[in-house]
Amino acid sequence: MAAKDTSNKTGKTGLIFFPAFDWAISPTHPEREERLLYTRDQIFEEGLMDLPEIEEYKPRLATPKDISRVHFCVPNVEAQVTEAHLIAAGSVLTLADAKEEGAIRNGFALVRPPGHHSMMVVHGNRGFCNINNMAIMVEYFRTRYGHKKIAIVDTDVHHGDGTQDIFWHDPDVLFISFHQDGRTLYPGSGFPNEMGGPQALGRTLNIPLPPGTTDEGIHYVLDNFILPVLKDFKPDLVLNSAGQDNHYTDPLANMRFSANGYARLNEKLAPDLCVLEGGYAIETALPYVNTGIIQAMAGLDYSHVREPDYVPGKFVQSAEMKRDIEATIGQLQEIWDNRDRLVEDALAEHGQFYRRRKRIFYDTDMINEGQEETVRLCDRCHGYMTIASQAQKGYGILNSAFCVSLPRNACTSCREDAREEFEEHKEDSKFNYVYLQDKQKDTYHSYETRTRNQRDY
Length: 457
Ligand SMILES: [Zn+2]
Ligand SMILES: [Zn+2]
Prior knowledge:
Low-confidence stretches: 1-9
Shape: globular
CATH class of the largest domain: Alpha Beta
Bound molecules: zinc ion
Distance between the termini: 20 Å
Radius of gyration: 21 Å
Number of strands: 17
Strand content: 15-25%
Largest sheet: 8 strands, parallel
Helix content: 25-40%
Mean pLDDT: 94
CATH architecture of the largest domain: 3-Layer(aba) Sandwich
Structural class: alpha/beta
CATH topology of the largest domain: Arginase, Chain A
């Protein structure tokens, strides 16, 4: 299906709330349902839900197929998700449809559990995430509505390492993440030299910021780098992984961003859709930040949105911090300006296949995963990819999986070879599970070698 006009038809802002009452890592864990309940109270108190600019939507369930378009869930989708996950992912798809049908101009899915730490292969929960709501929306937009180029801006304080992993080799998805420097915060990644696979160099842009970065620093990054890069890239859609843990009261991080700073960020970025990620200052930040963002999205005055203890000028950026941030942006600007040459050089350097090994740690579930990823550098398509994955928990092997992924524009030769690798590993039983993700046909297959049982979506 060809991309169609998604310009403003009614000007409404769509909202979905899903606090997931029955999902928490533990009762006292910061990732719990109160995260959204205070926000909801504040929004009702402000009378936002009665405004003609705002339209509330009811969530629906995402299907296993929606999830398989992005993830290889080991052993299967059902084992990795609860109903809450399906509703959170389904909520973003509901807003995607409303946007595409022209019923809304923009929208915000205030849902949990969050998703941006979930990678392509899923053995368990990482950083409170099992499945990546944002990535599921991107692949849905492309499959269902034919969009090609999509930009994701991740404004959570933690590096969006899962989203980065999923689109690492995809030159049509621009992923920009700013976050507190990974040397000082989970998940420890997100440096400028992480810039995408050989065919997509410069389409992953990581902006680590020093702890204590203020509104001034973040708006410098936005004005001088993120907005001009988006203008260059010309995406069909701009999507925002809206994490609110850059706030100065957040208990899990050390930044000094204000609710007003977040609202102004949203106004400038003007994302088509926002998906909530983290944010753990349940009473002191979330209600203010969310209210400000919603007002900015709806084109309403947000100047009165202010935390009770905030006065303008509360935080001042040091000269050293300013120099730090400017140097990082200088480095990233060079990557962005030279992206096509970087790709050319990388393709000349690698042979027919590109390989990388990864170690992935699941902090919540204490799983250690080793991956070997191989991508064919094909000159007729984006090339097929395989991931050999082995997960360990404690002393024992938890599961092993061989995953094959075919891109949307797969050429005949990549199709045949990918299919062959899938069949070969079904036979040789080296792995517990074998998967084939065929984005071109929108079909997904998972095979258990022990029972010789195959599921198709
Ligand atoms: Zn976060
Ligand atoms: Zn090919």
